[in-house]
């Protein structure tokens, strides 16, 4: 039993080292993309990964990187399965992840996902990650990746990405 | 029997997402502004991801060993089940927005209902897609407002786009006799109330936009029989070229 416990701890350590290719300061754990790590009946390690957005091209890459990270630590055999249920939400992003995003220059998601309805305008008062002003303006609902929107700060005039709340 | 019907239905949903995604990708590098270029590509990418899930699931349920790529690249025009609306040319930006708005509202109703499916994989796919669709709808609704309530020229172009596309909306919630059996089992929703909700929403919004429905009415259909307009063949010729020329090639 202790051996299994130890093995699973090592798995979570390995996952903490796998980062998002577009936002390298965030690990898959910070993003809340890992839904579970288990040993199945055949003693294989099964990692359940949930994609952020259906079309996010990073999902396939992350599957490979997780497999590689486990293999380099001798945590084998491992399989990474994609788990769509429940659907990923920014509510699963860790607090430390949100802080890292902020420091990296991306405004973290504000509010809880259930508040983000169909016709609700993107929340006002998104804080600028550079000068922390709340006088900011939405430029575009879509930005460099599926998970972000583009804003501009009215005070320091810098454009910045906002990690959408979904 | 049931498996085949469900697989065919998922192909209908997934093919529509795939072909619409392809049309949106055609805007890449051509949209009126850089931000719109990125937005249309992003929406297309979401739809492509959703299509991958739908086609993979269709392939699994069908059980003939066809994965998402086999289904996307090696079916002919007559085997494609996408809505005719999705394959219509982009036209100008206003026409693209009309098509997107009609489809977003359709997806909203469809996935809200499918979220309750007794088939767990179908429900998971619907819940995931629904989140993305709500965001798409926010974008297309904003643009419908701006274009229809903006300048006279923008209004005219939006009305023309609607005139051009409306006839393809008749089949949006068509449900065939085979699918009715899945309704009884709680796997698929009854589409009649969904269609009524969609139509009511469209009517209310069009009134707000000052747009009117064309006299010709909605009458074209063919998706579920694989009877397409002339445009799908050209899309598939481009989409399938590499795999048709070099079967099973990989990156």
Automatic annotation (TrEMBL), chain A:
Residues 10-70 form the MIP18 family-like domain. It comes from Acinetobacter indicus CIP 110367. Residues 119-164 form the PaaD zinc beta ribbon domain. NCBIfam families: PA_CoA_Oxy4. InterPro entries: Fe-S_Maturation_MIP18, FSCA_dom_sf, MIP18-like, PaaD-like, Zn_ribbon_PaaD. It comes from the Bacteria. Coiled coil: none annotated. This is Phenylacetate-CoA oxygenase, PaaJ subunit.
